[in-house]
Each structure stands twice: as C-alpha cells, then as structure tokens.
Design goal:
Layout: H1 20-33, H2 40-45, H3 51-63, H4 66-77, E1 79-80, H5 88-93, H6 98-130, E2 145-146, H7 170-181, H8 193-198, H9 202-218, H10 220-239, H11 252-280
Antiparallel strand pairs: 1-2
Length: 290
C-alpha cells in the first residue's frame, strides 16, 4: 500500500484513482467551482465511506449561489500588511519569464477562488452541525492594504502536476515545509497544495519566502489568519440555515473534526497568504524582459 504521506499530508483519494460515485462527485465539484483540480479536503473526505456524498450534498447549494458573494466579500475586505510587490526585474533575474508568470498567476487565481469559497462554505457547515461561533481576535491594525477587488474572473485552466514532497530535492522540500509553517499557530502538518503546485518554480518560492519571513516573525501573518477565521465563521454563519435540515451522518463527530482542522488551519491560513502573494505578484500582460 502506498504511504499517503508520499503524495498528500492526510489520507486522500487521488483524482486519477477515483471511481464510481467518487469520480462523479469530483467531476461535479470541478464543474460547479469551474476549476481543474479538486481540493485536498474533498479528496480526504472521500476516504470515509459515504462522507463525501453527504458533505457535498449539504454544501453544493451554497457553492451554486449564496457562497459566491460571501467569498468575494472575504477577498475584498481582507486587510493585508504593507508589502513591496515583486518587480519585473526581480522576476526576470529569478528566471520567471512571461510563460512562467502566466502559469503562476493561474495557480494563485485558482487557489484564491477556491480557498475563499471553501472558507465560507465549510464554516457554514461547522456552524450548522457543530454550533461554532466566531473567535475573538485582535482588531485589524492600521496602515494595512485593503485587498483590491476580487481579482480577475477565474477561467478554468489546467494546472501543472501536484508535486509530491517526497519527489522534491531536499532543499526544495525544506523550503515548502518552512513556507507551510508561516502564519500557522499550532498545526503545520497539512502541507498546503498551493506550495506544491508552485514548486515547479523554486526561485519563485524563494521570493515568496523573502516576502513572508518578516511578516511571520512579526506575528502579522498570524493576525491575518485569525481575522480570516473570524470572517469565515461570520459569513458562513449567515448561510448555515440554508443547509437543509437532515439527520446528521452517523460519523458526524469524526467529520466535524476533519473539517474543523482544515478550516482552522490550511484553509484559513492560505486564504490570507494566497491573497497576500497574489497582491505581490504582477499580472503578465505581455511585458518584455527588462
């Protein structure tokens, strides 16, 4: 049996290995979210008999409408620390040409889109079945950057292969693990898939590290994540009544534990950090190398 840690940080069904109803739901998730990949939380839930069907059936109506404006609200209202964007000169020196930058942008746009949706939908799930309430967190500091708009409309585009950490050169694997700890307060074991997608461009990840290190050390990233968690529960709570009343799944406590872990840690963390990285990364508009 393949060790799941070689490909994913938790047991998960790979998209190419999905069959039957699991493959059908994965296809429906991609179609409903207009994305090319199925996020790890869904692939993890698919390892539990009957759970993927129950959770997707609960949340699909939210993804089809009510969650869209609330996810946009998350992206638009998030206050980000002051940063200096990557310049075209820095990207060129790092070997990030136009094609690479376009691919990086598609990855960031995809995760920015799906993370905010997952945040509000799964937060609604927690409020509905767990009675979760927003946490008390530090008020936003002054002088931050208000996230400018929700970004471009995400067009469904194929993403590069998700690189298993075990296949990365040791230095790159250490870099991915280090990045994954930034902004995390207690559970860095769930390696964010976004970093594994971006690992096709190690120099870009090195630039991201340079961007995030001072924000991590100052505690600003953890403050951003805390605000994201609260925002998700507040906006998700508005949708909780829209989840149809049904008999809870017989393993609801186990399901809630998994969902709670994902929402509180990688989903909340990467909703904030992806927005920050996207703000720092220019759009490719056909600029020539300096």
């Amino acid at each position: 049996m393949t060790n799941p840690m070689q490909s994913d940080p938790v047991p998960a069904i790979r998209e190419n290995d999905a069959v039957g109803s699991t493959a059908e739901i994965f296809a429906d998730i991609r179609e409903t979210l207009n994305v090319d990949v199925v996020n790890l939380i869904w692939r993890h839930l698919a390892t539990m008999p009957g759970v993927l069907e129950w959770v997707w059936d609960s949340l699909r109506p939210l993804y089809q409408g009510p969650a869209i404006s609330r996810a946009e609200c998350v992206r638009n209202s998030l206050t980000l620390p002051q940063i200096s964007p990557f310049s075209s000169e820095v990207l060129f020196v790092a070997g990030i040409d136009g094609a690479a930058l376009a691919s990086v942008g598609k990855i960031l746009d995809s995760y920015q889109h799906t993370n905010a949706l997952a945040l509000v939908c799964f937060s609604a799930f927690l409020v509905r079945f767990d009675g979760s309430t927003p946490e008390q967190v530090q008020a936003p500091t002054t002088g931050g950057n208000r996230n400018k708009g929700s970004g471009p409309i995400v067009e469904r585009a194929p993403l590069p292969r998700l690189i298993p950490v075990a296949e990365m050169p040791p230095a790159l694997a250490r870099l991915v693990h280090e990045l994954n700890e930034f902004g995390e307060d207690s559970d860095p074991d769930l390696v964010a898939s976004m970093y594994r997608h971006l690992a096709h461009w190690p120099a870009y990840l090195a630039l991201v590290r340079t961007l995030l290190v001072p924000l991590h050390r100052s505690g600003e990233l953890k403050s951003v994540v805390a605000r994201v968690r609260t925002c998700g529960l507040e906006l998700g709570g508005e949708m909780a009544p829209d989840i149809l009343t049904r008999r809870p799944h017989q393993k609801v406590e186990h399901i809630l534990g998994a969902v709670r872990r994902f929402v509180r840690h990688p989903i909340a963390r990467m909703t904030g950090i992806c927005s920050l990285i996207r703000t720092a990364t220019p759009e490719w508009t056909g600029w020539a190398a300096p």
